[in-house]
């Protein structure tokens, strides 16, 4: 497993491998407990009285890093005397970070704070007793009034709230290369799957072999979820994750067949690509489309690619597939006081603006001014208010991490064998194991 080096955000620009993290991820946990892997981190902080706040994310590059940098700057203003330490482990959707984090939590070596998705994913950490109750801080920081009730409900478990949301992201968006579409004579956004396939054919006819760029497992799960929303409608889609909709439903079979057809328009090296690699195919004009969350808006901006547009996945209608990044206070954090200052910044109006204007997401707070945001986020803010909201399994709002892992691996297999019945059975089995009884 390759770990990219991560630059310390705004603090000296030191490049370091998250050595402790990499070791944990390859399963050499014993080395850690025996102290055989002496990390430079261990000597420079920790213990009571630490003024370092290690912030663990997977936001290491592009628009994701730009968002984090914005938050770090605000933290510097709000939390004098505290120092940000970048614990980021690169890899889209936390593909590497989550296993590293799990090992660290298991070892009793938590970062001071880490990102976790609101909803089912957060519940995993709550159920495992790994994070602290922040309800009293919510009261003193006025956060219950700042966030929409639906989000508060998603964050609340047995009356307690354990994390502070930084944003709302949208997952079911298709990003396009305008020039490629213009060359194929496409002037209107497709609104259903048939129209989308017709447009994919038009781009293909211009010599672009794989007009729909996609990456590995979790990015395929995102595409599959979008097709499920189209074929089942938003309510039945949500029911897949609550147990109200049977995964053996004929609508799911149709969705798998539609998804299979879409895969014929994608790059054959998909299983080796992260979302940014697939995004590059769009930027380079080697593909016309990519289904991806709206962190892509920020990333394209950060990479100075301006010739893009977006539309809601065809057939999703007025559905906003949401997810929210939130930050927690792990049990055993070395610097709880500094971490609370970080969390307060995350939840504040200034923190949310500093973060979201460069992250592609919209603020979770309801008191933001749309005019402060780029064009894409202004549209997303309006949609968030009026559209039907459904959760995402690929990004933890709909399903637990165990379920997500099972889904990713089923999609990975499908990418190779294209066996419709096998995928449906694997998803039905996962649901029977993981749905909350
Ligand atoms: C999501 C996360 C987003 C973005 C994305 C791609 O899980 O919520 O903020 O980072 O992964 O890495």
Core attributes:
437 residues; 2 domains; 21 helices; D-Maltodextrin-Binding Protein, domain 2; alpha/beta; five-stranded mixed β-sheet; four-stranded mixed β-sheet; binds beta-D-galactopyranose
Structure, explained:
The chain has 437 residues and is of the alpha/beta class. The chain folds into 2 domains: 52-169 and 323-391, 3-Layer(aba) Sandwich (D-Maltodextrin-Binding Protein, domain 2); 173-321 and 396-434, 3-Layer(aba) Sandwich (D-Maltodextrin-Binding Protein, domain 2). Helix content is 48%, strand content 13%. It is built from 21 helices and 16 strands. Strands 4-3-5-15-8 form a 5-stranded mixed β-sheet, sandwiched between helices. A hairpin with a 7-residue loop joins strand 1 (6-7) and strand 2 (15-16). Helix 17 (336-347) packs across helix 18 (349-356) and helix 20 runs antiparallel to helix 21 (420-434). The relative contact order is 0.17. The model is unreliable at 1-47 (pLDDT under 50). The chain binds beta-D-galactopyranose. Belongs to the bacterial solute-binding protein 1 family.
- Residue fraction in strands: 5-15%
Say what the CATH topology of the largest domain is.
D-Maltodextrin-Binding Protein, domain 2
Strand order of the largest sheet: 4-3-5-15-8
Radius of gyration: 21 Å
Write the layout of secondary structure elements.
Elements: E1 6-7, E2 15-16, H1 19-25, H2 29-33, H3 40-43, E3 52-56, H4 62-78, E4 83-86, H5 97-106, E5 113-117, H6 120-127, H7 135-141, H8 143-146, H9 149-155, E6 156-157, E7 160-161, E8 163-165, E9 169-170, E10 173-177, H10 178-183, H11 193-205, E11 212-213, H12 217-232, H13 234-242, H14 250-263, H15 275-283, E12 289-292, H16 295-302, E13 308-312, E14 319-323, E15 325-328, H17 336-347, H18 349-356, H19 375-386, E16 388-391, H20 401-417, H21 420-434
Parallel strand pairs: 3-4, 3-5, 11-12, 14-16
Antiparallel strand pairs: 1-2, 5-15, 6-7, 8-15, 9-14, 10-12, 10-13
Helix pairs in contact: 1-5, 4-16, 4-17, 4-18, 12-13, 12-14, 12-20, 14-21, 17-18, 20-21
The site of beta-D-galactopyranose has 13 residues, from loops.
